[in-house]
Amino acid sequence: MGIVITAFERSPDGGKGLARDTRVRWALEEAGLPYEVRPVSFRAMKEPAHLALHPFGQIPTYEEGDLALFETGAIVFHIAQHHAGLLPDDAGARARAITWIFAALNTVEPVILELVTARILERDKPWTAERLPLVEDRIRDRLTQLAARLGDADWLDGSFSAGDLMMVSVLLRLRPSGLLDEFPSLAAYVARGETRPAYRRAFAAQWAVNAAPPVGG
Amino acid sequence: MGIVITAFERSPDGGKGLARDTRVRWALEEAGLPYEVRPVSFRAMKEPAHLALHPFGQIPTYEEGDLALFETGAIVFHIAQHHAGLLPDDAGARARAITWIFAALNTVEPVILELVTARILERDKPWTAERLPLVEDRIRDRLTQLAARLGDADWLDGSFSAGDLMMVSVLLRLRPSGLLDEFPSLAAYVARGETRPAYRRAFAAQWAVNAAPPVGG
């Protein structure tokens, strides 16, 4: 009963690893689970067959036998809950690691999504140049708080967990903006995540699908 | 070993039930658990004692003996995982209910938060009148997809679950905007949540703290 996930047939980021399937690939690699990837085109993503799997017409989805899930956070949590390597055994530490999954997705990512919206969906709007600094300052507020909590620790709560996997993945979205580099301890935290062998394998796998082929030759 | 949560000493919504402690109160009421509330002032929320509990200086938090959690999604999930009434027993149905918790928080709430940002934080900005329709259309897109999935069912996946609790709570934030009423099946879904005895008790409890006393007399 193999695991099948969906991913962009062609990621909008050209292979930078920012599409959400990378988060699921990373979790599967940390857990040492083999998986197959079914690529989905932008057109197919909005068609009934895919909407039956994912009501919001996005990727990734997760299928394993009779079970079909959507929503990256839920998929990563599902993998973490059923396999070793992503959540501590101690009940309290486990609850705190799960807290960081939610914090990454519901407290840190929303302010970052506003930046993505401003830079992409509202790129050509007359207000965007003047509005961007406000959006960026709201991100800085959150990163200041996150950096204060992280302190000089390697990970958010003891050993690496699915909470770190999600927080690193969310913060990675900021790298193109330069904002992450304003917070050296968070930039180092993200880099620490990226050096994990499981992350490297996940990144390489999505790169192989998405990176533009070399010109010429 | 009692449960203690934090809530606004005085909620910015004046008791409409939109502050996030209502979500946790609702989950505790569904599970039939007694709890105490420790009110926190806006000033105290940003001070070291509260930041030690909640790194982002928000409410609610959850304490039970040695365990201290923050982040509404994590708290509701913790309650749901350890007590009957909020998650189905069947493993697949349980994973799908958890999926809806994440979908409410990471796919539906972020577009709604953009509306809150526009209407409150950017209320006086010159671009806001022209920008609001774009923000509202992004919400309409998500609600159209959500309504398509809900169909004429009472709840998102079988019986009421923590996933519905969270989705109803997120959608409630839209009521003041009038957007929810554009989707009659979702408005009815939210109303269905509000008629649950556990929700009524949670609402009444936060109302007792936050509602302005009658003038005069």
From TrEMBL, chains A, B:
Domain (GST C-terminal): residue spans on this chain: 90-215
Record-linked Pfam families: GST_N (PF02798)
Domain GST N-terminal: 8-87
PROSITE patterns: GST_CTER, GST_NTER
UniProt-recorded name of the protein: Glutathione S-transferase family protein
Organism of derivation: Dokdonella ginsengisoli
